Structures are given as C-alpha cells and as structure tokens.
Amino acid sequence: MNRKIRMMLPLVLLVLCMLVAPLALSEAAAPGVVQIHQMASMGCTDSYLVTDGETVILVDCGLDTDTSYAHNGPLLEYLEASGIDHVDAHFITHYHNDHCYNLNLLNELYGTDTTIVYGPSDELPSRFQPLKNGHYEQLVDNQELNVGPFAIRCIGPAKPVNQGATNYDSLNFYLTYGKRIMLFTGDWVDWKLFDRHPESASQIDILSFPHHGLEPFCIQEYELHAMNPEYVLVPGKRAFQVRGFLKFSSANRAQVFDTADGNIVILTDGDSMALYTQVEPGRFSAFAQVTVEQP
Questions:
Q1: CB 228 within 8 A of CB 250
Q2: Does residue 157 register a pLDDT over 90?
Q3: What confidence tens digit (pLDDT) does each residue in 219-277 have?
Q4: Which of 68, 176, 201, 239 has an alpha carbon 20 to 30 Å from 113's alpha carbon atom?
C-alpha cells in the first residue's frame, strides 16, 4: 500500500461509515466520537456542551434576559434529552448573566463530588457560594489541564482587570481533542493573544466568536488571518456581520453559523469533522441509539 493511500484511508473509512444507515452513535457503537453542541434554543447566550459519552464539559450556559427565552426551560430540556447525568467540568468565561446565570442550577442538577467549576477570578463570586457539588478553581493564563480525553489550555486574559466581571476579562481557552482545536472566547479575545501564544493561536479549527465583540469587532483582522478557522459559531443572530468582516481577511474559507441555524452539533473523531444544523434535542444523545444522516 503506497503512502498516499495510507494517508487517505482513515477519511475514506469515516465517509463510508456516515453513508451507512442507520449509524448508531451510541457509546458502544461509536467510541472516540466527540460531540460539540452550541445550544441555540436559549436565545443570545453562550451555551456549549462537549462530551465523548463519558466526559461531560459545559461552557457558560447563561440566560438571555432580553428576549422571550428568559427562562431555563429550553436549556434544561436540551441537556436532559442529550442523556448526560453529570458534569465533570463547567467553565465560566466571565460573570455576566448571559454566561453564568445557570451555574448553581446546573451544579445542583449535574454536579458531583468531583465536579470542578473553572473561572477567571481567584474566588467564585459570593452569589454562587457555596457550590452544592464539587469545588471552584481559578483558570489563569498559560495554565494547562486535562479533563478526560480533552486537553485545556488557558490563553487569557493575561491580567484580569475586574476579576472576570467584564467583557475584557473573559477567559480565552483552547479545548483540544486529537488534531482538532476549539477556541472559546466568552465576550473577548485578548489583543495580545498572538504575541504570547503565536505557535498555538494559529491552529484553530472551531472558533466560538466573542459574544459581544461585533460592534466594534474584538477580533482583529490579523488574528482571524492567523486563526483561519474552518467553523465559526456566533451566539445570537449576527452571522451576517461576521461574514462581512471575514470578507476583508484571508480567513474567508470559514463557514459561519449563528442561532438562525438552530442548535448546532459538530462531530469529530479527532481528525475529520462533520457539522449539523437545526438539531433537535436528543438527536445526538451520548447514551441512546440514534440515526445519523449526512449534513
């Protein structure tokens, strides 16, 4: 078998698997398949679920108080339908309600003795204390840790000004699985990111676009040029603005999605990726037999 065929074989096998119906995406049938959910049914909030069927990570999961989605129902329904029964790590990028509002509720429902809540401040704000389950840890610039099969690396902010209570204090951190890297930004990308981490900041596959960084943009053109992401996920309905911004950078190959695309799920085996839009809660349950169709 020549070298070119050997390199293409994993991708060919994955495509063949996706063409076979039904494809059971259960824990037993599809080991090593990671799901990255952007839960859009809550309105303009940051709400992410990342799981491989065993390890469960939440990022933010806030409350959109400015719309008719100002309640917890859609979030709780989505998480229940996903089949999770615990949370290993909950990352709070900063302490605005559209990012952190549901922390205590989710900690009570899904937290365990080993659950860790990570945030940008040295202590958890008093309104979230005491946690019913697990404990809190500060995540600081350049810190690295592992949660199950996922490698986490914090890349900002370098010096929180207001202990995580402003957009500019949002955590920026990578979540890596295999060859694939997702950058979570909260509401802000530190302008010094590429000065401090040039070797890793240029390898982003999936970008969670800053929540309120659209007018003015809080990702600079040179940053997007260096990232060159394949997928850009935008909280709220502002993808058109991001697409317009991308036209003026060389990162124009990125596919941009927002809440108009409904709940989004990205599947990856650490190499290949597949993105699905308008996903019904429970379609990609980590613990139930489901049928997966091509996007």
A1: yes
A2: no
A3: 777 777 778 889 999 888 778 888 877 776 555 678 999 888 999 999 999 999 999 99
A4: 176
Query: Rounded to an integer, what distance in angstroms lies between the CA atom of residue 70 and that of residue 58?
Result: 19
* pTM of model > 0.70: yes
Per the CB < 8 A criterion, the answer to whether 285 and 78 are in contact is no
142: burial class by Cβ within 10 Å (0-12, 13-18, 19+)?
exposed
How many CB atoms sit inside 10 A of residue 12's CB? Answer: 10
- Answer for the pair 69, 42: CB distance below 8 angstroms, yes or no: yes
In the chain, what are the domains? 3-276 (3.60.15.10)
